[in-house]
Predict the structure.
Amino acid sequence: MPKITIDKERCKGCQLCILYCPKGQIRPDKNLNKKGIQPVVFLGGDCSGCKFCAIICPDAAIEVYK
Amino acid sequence: MDKIFGRPKSLRDIPTHYCSGCGHGIAHRLISEVVDELDIRERIIGVAPIGCAVIAYDYWDFDCCEAAHGRALAVATGIKRVRPEAIVFTYQGDGDLVAIGCAETIHAANRGENLTTVFINNAVYGMTGGQMAPTTLLNQKTATTPFGRDAKSAGYPLKISELLAQLSGVYYVERVSTDSPVKVLAAKRAIKQAFINQIEGKGFSLVEILSACPTYLGMKPTAAVKWVREEMTKEFPLGKIK
């Protein structure tokens, strides 16, 4: 099963990955990161490895594994 | 399980100073990916602009140079003529390339310098506080046009790509966007083509990237990319111009 990892300290919370995830597997995190920004979190469910989240991420905070 | 997408080698592993949702981060990464794929990291010299991307050289892990405001193409011309084997590109915003650097841009293009230019068009001055840029859309509110840009007093959005495409020295001009993953992939193809043109000695190549500036558009990043897709592309249609 493909999966993604999100660097929470690098995430600036723009939520573009949430906008473009076709499976709805990314959500805002409940906790803030060290900069006080609300990062996003991968739910760990049905990921197709389409890389949309990583391609649109302006901070290169997402890695995709397949 | 293999990593199928990660940070390119030419992009340093440090946080950028850009605002949340800024298109500069995507453009930086695309250039780094293209440099890695073409294996030109030891040959490339970037020229950073003045503007939000002024410290782009801190983020790219290859040789870079800084130019005075708008003069990136003049500096790049000098570098290319002294080091013709180097792959030289400029990375410029709309205030840099279209406003103060308009003369340098037009003349470098008209001379047909064998250079690549990556032009980030976000329709506003980002670094200095959201003032009107030459590419600001009509009726768009900025710090210096609080009631919207009025053509009578502030003129019309300057389409520099169409303007440059008319020059004989220009080989390749394409306008792309970073508002969705599919458009980002198209932007990467265009940037790659612009670098290949230079490697093959074809002449001046310019890639205009429509990019969101959520901070000075006064929108959330998700709304800003929608604005780029729906409003900006009406004035600046995407596609290959030359």
About this structure: The beta strands of chain A are 3-6, 26-28, 40-42, 62-65. The interface with chain B takes residues 2-3, 9-10, 12-16, 18-20, 37, 49, 51-52, 54-60, 62-66 of chain A (CB under 8 Å).
